[in-house]
């Protein structure tokens, strides 16, 4: 059981690296396309209307996949203040509830996102010659749900208040420079 869990965690880490790579690629592609449009306008005094439309097609991928990278890194929004005032047992109950809600959200992304993807029949008109199927952007929705489900194998470590960072920060602040009176 433990080796299977470790294998799933390695899968999660690999998927996280792939998602990070895809996000970086999308950002660089978006910047390259936009910069091409800018340079064309600068040198010809005419605009390439398709560059900004094409660059926008990368935004759903960047937004959705980067949310999975943030989830895996524990960089998402957490109610740390609430966790500090609750008793330890309620903190665990809240953490379990958070993970269950996260799993429900991921399943909803997969369920409704797959329907969204399956029903995408139109093409996005970038220009008269460039048409991109809406399937390109809509597949990012269920894929994000799958990645979130994979990351759930990390359990409580996905939640900020279980990483130990807060305790380390509090301890560092308490041990910081003390005012002395002379």
Task: Describe the overall structure.
The chain is mainly alpha-helical and 182 residues long. It has one domain (2-162). Helices cover 71% and strands 3% of the residues. The chain has 8 helices and 2 strands; from the N terminus they run αααααββααα. The chain has a two-stranded antiparallel ribbon with strand order 1-2. α1 runs antiparallel to α2 and α5 runs antiparallel to α7.
List keywords for this structure.
single chain; 182 residues; mainly alpha; two-stranded antiparallel ribbon; 8 helices; 2 strands; 71% helix; elongated
Q: Please give the oligomerization state of what you see.
A: single chain
Shape: elongated
Strand content: under 5%
- Radius of gyration over all CA atoms, rounded: 22 Å
Major sheet: arrangement of strands: 1-2
The tally of beta strands, per DSSP, is: 2
How many helices? 8
List the helices and strands and how they pair.
Elements: H1 2-44, H2 49-56, H3 59-73, H4 80-85, H5 88-118, E1 123-125, E2 131-133, H6 135-138, H7 140-151, H8 165-174
Antiparallel strand pairs: 1-2
Helix pairs in contact: 1-2, 1-3, 3-7, 5-7
Short characterization:
Helices cover 71% and strands 3% of the residues. It has 182 residues and is mainly alpha-helical. It has one domain.
């Amino acid at each position: 059981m433990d080796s299977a869990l470790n294998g799933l965690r390695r899968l999660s880490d690999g998927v996280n690296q792939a998602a990070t790579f895809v996000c970086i690629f999308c950002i660089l592609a978006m910047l390259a396309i936009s910069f091409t449009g800018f340079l064309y306008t600068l040198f010809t005094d005419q605009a390439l209307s398709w560059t900004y439309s094409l660059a926008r097609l990368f935004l759903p991928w960047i937004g959705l996949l980067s949310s999975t990278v943030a989830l895996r890194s524990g960089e998402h929004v957490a109610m740390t203040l609430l966790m500090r005032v609750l008793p330890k047992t309620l903190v665990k109950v809240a953490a379990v509830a958070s993970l269950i809600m996260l799993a429900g959200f991921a399943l909803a992304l997969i369920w409704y996102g797959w329907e969204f993807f399956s029903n995408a029949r139109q093409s996005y008109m970038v220009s008269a010659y460039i048409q991109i199927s809406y399937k390109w952007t809509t597949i990012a929705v269920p894929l994000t749900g799958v990645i979130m489900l994979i990351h759930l194998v990390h359990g409580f470590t996905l939640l900020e208040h279980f990483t130990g960072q807060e305790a380390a920060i509090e301890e560092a602040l308490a041990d910081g420079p003390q005012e002395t009176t002379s």
